[in-house]
Amino acid sequence: MESSADPSYQAGYELGKTVAPLFLAVILLVVVGFFIFSIIKACKRKSAGWIISSVISGVLAIVGILGGLGLAVGKIVEKQAIAANGGGKTTLVTGKSGTFTLEMPSNWAELPQLIKESDAQLGVGNGRRELYTIVLEESKQDFESDLEGYDNLVLANMKAKMSGAELSEVTIRTLNGLPARQHRLEGSFNRIGIVYHIATVESPDAFYQVLTWTLRSKEPTAKPILEEVINSFKVLPSSGTGPSVKSAKGSAQPSEGTESRLRKVTAKLLDLDPSVIKLESTLAKDLGADDLDTVELVMAVEEEFGVEIADVDAAAMKTFGDLVRLIDQGKSR
Fold first, then answer.
1. pLDDT one-digit tens code per residue, 214-228
2. How far apart are CA 322 and CA 329, in angstroms?
């Protein structure tokens, strides 16, 4: 028996996908042709046999046409869903604080206006398709409550701003290793129907709100996309779970701040202007560091600051801000 991974099987499968619709189309044309022929014969001869044949072939022709239309509509909806999701490709983005990442469809973009309006750490979306996501981060020190209490505060605040708000039952889950609570919230803003898919997440140091939304009419096709965005949310190990950075040569005695010193080391290694290096700058995308550059940067940092960065934390490091935190935590141990 051939495996589905076998090249001949795959070739046969692809051929079948191409030939089958053509074969069905030919059969449908034959049925329609026979139906027309039967109608003509039934009108001329008025015999029971031809009348029955025309009825049966007519029913088959109608079923075939409706089935073909259904398949065509299904293909159109499928293509629209794939297009709305950027063809299935995603882009990794990091919040301003450098503590978390999110994967967004490749046809989305970062939207600074969302960040300004909501004081969020991240704002992304596709304005043409009315799909949006923001992530807000708040220190746990500012709240005398657990995740459930924080979640209730978030929802109460959102419902107060909406008319006709309808809240789904909570889904208690784990989101990439962290406790989370997820809801669907529907209502209206200025008579515009909005549907939110919301997740509140707890890390050891912070609470996060992952808020995704779209228009009510667009939710059927948008829901899987918004769910994928929520599911991609990750708190980086250096910010949420306490990375294992330990002192190798004792605490460094810097004459200037860690961030400033590290910016100079990074700029020299990557041949960059120090002014372009921000806390939220991603090492690969914004600073152009490949895997070898990253390894060399970690070695240079360990030498400069007298710390040792564990391989697992180096692998999880995405932004310049991640590296600053690793060094500060390493010096404090």
1. 999 999 999 999 999
2. 11
Crossing angle of helices 7-45 and 48-84, in 10° steps, is 140
* pLDDT less than 50: residues of the chain: 1-7, 9-10, 82, 239-256, 332
* pTM score of the predicted model: 0.52
Rounded Cα–Cα distance for residues 100 and 262 (Å)? 21
Which residues are bridge partners to 136 per DSSP?
A: 209
Residues 6+ apart with CB under 8 A from 167: 155, 159, 183, 184, 185
Q: In terms of DSSP bridges, do strands 192-202 and 122-126 run parallel, antiparallel, or are they unpaired?
A: unpaired
Non-local CB neighbours of 144 within 8 Å, separated by 6+ positions: none
Interacting residues of 175 by C-beta distance below 8 A, sequence separation 6+: 199, 201, 230, 231, 233
Neighbours of 295 (CB within 10 A): 12
CA distance 218 to 131: 9
Tokens of 101: 């990442």
* Catalytic annotation present for 151: no
Which helix (H) or strand (E) segment holds residue 120: the answer is: none
φ/ψ bin of 289: left (φ > 0), alpha (ψ from -120 to 50), beta (otherwise): beta
Q: Which of 127, 147, 124 is nearest to 135 (CA)?
A: 124
Residues 6+ apart with CB under 8 A from 26: none
Question: Which pLDDT tens digit goes with each residue over 249-293?
Answer: 333 333 346 788 888 889 888 988 888 888 888 999 999 998 888
3-state DSSP helix/strand/coil percent for the chain, to nearest 5? 55, 25, 25
250 membership: H or E segment, kind and range: none
Nearest to 196 by CA among 226, 157, 154, 229: 226
Catalytic residue among 290, 293, 313, 328: 290
Which neighbouring-strand residues pair with 208? Answer: 137, 201
